[in-house]
Amino acid sequence: MANTCSAADASSTKPSITHIIFDMDGLLLDTEKFYTEVQEIILARYNKTFDWSLKAKMMGKKAIEAARVFVEETGIDALLSAEDFLVEREDMLQSMFPTSELMPGASRLIQHLHANGIPICVATGSHTRHFELKTQRHGELFSLMHHIVRGDDPEVKQGKPSPDIFLAAAKRFEGGPVDPKKILVFEDAPSGVLAAKNAGMSAIMVPDPRLDSSYHETADQVLSSLLDFNPSEWGLPPFDKPPT
Q1: How far is CA 181 from CA 16, 17, 19, 215, in A?
Q2: Kind of pairing between the strands at 202-205 and 183-187
Q3: Which residues contact 138 (CB under 8 A, 6 or more apart)?
């Protein structure tokens, strides 16, 4: 799924990047499966099924925004409110989040960028309580981030695809705000890619293979995995050795 253009061609058409913003869920941490599992359990009670066209509309959004999409699109909004859905979902998620695993290539890329002095941060729709549960086994890696902007940050008025969270993240780098043209965003969700583009930033999408390919079009580059990322295409220091 990685772009087919050569590194030479790619680097000549891409902006030179100085700063990186990472999404978290489904990009750095394998947490999207938890949301899918819980939502399947809830919908089964109403004899309905959860599919990836609905998943795509929910990904990357603030919790309440995603919840409204869920109950309205499935037609259960007269039986279950968005607020009650979140309460019901919460108990199940609380026990799952602490088991979150890193996505392939996440640790390698973060450590490489940090070691080479490239400023990096996280911009996640997750609110603080969920963020802490999800990252509790990965504190050392997330400590390499210059800063972290969460979905309950007061500066984030609207969730993705609004650019709020990425513009807030750009402001908080040292010497910020950083020129959006010099920022590369890594995302897995369609709404996140749109948010990055709405902020005037470049976006690499690392989507779940089950996501319909029509959602790939907005991204500047689409990769199957973070392991496929070639930093030199974006004017960043190359990896010392290939992934293992």
Answers
A1: 8, 8, 10, 22
A2: parallel
A3: 29, 100, 102
Structure tokens at 224: 């199957």
**pLDDT tens sequence across 73-102:** 999 999 999 999 999 999 899 999 999 999
pTM assigned to the model: 0.91
Q: Which of 9, 23, 51, 77 is catalytic?
A: 23
25 an active-site residue? yes
Among residues 25, 153, 188, 220, which one is catalytic? 25
Q: Is residue 35 within 8 Å of residue 134, measured between CB atoms?
A: no
What angle, 0 to 180 degrees and rounded to 10, lies between the N-to-C axes of helices 82-96 and 63-73?
120
Is 77 marked active-site? no
Contacts 24+ apart (CB under 8 A), 47-54: 48/74, 48/75, 48/76, 50/74, 52/208, 52/210, 52/211, 52/212, 53/212
Q: Which band of pLDDT confidence, cut at 50, 70 and 90, is reported for residue 7?
A: very low
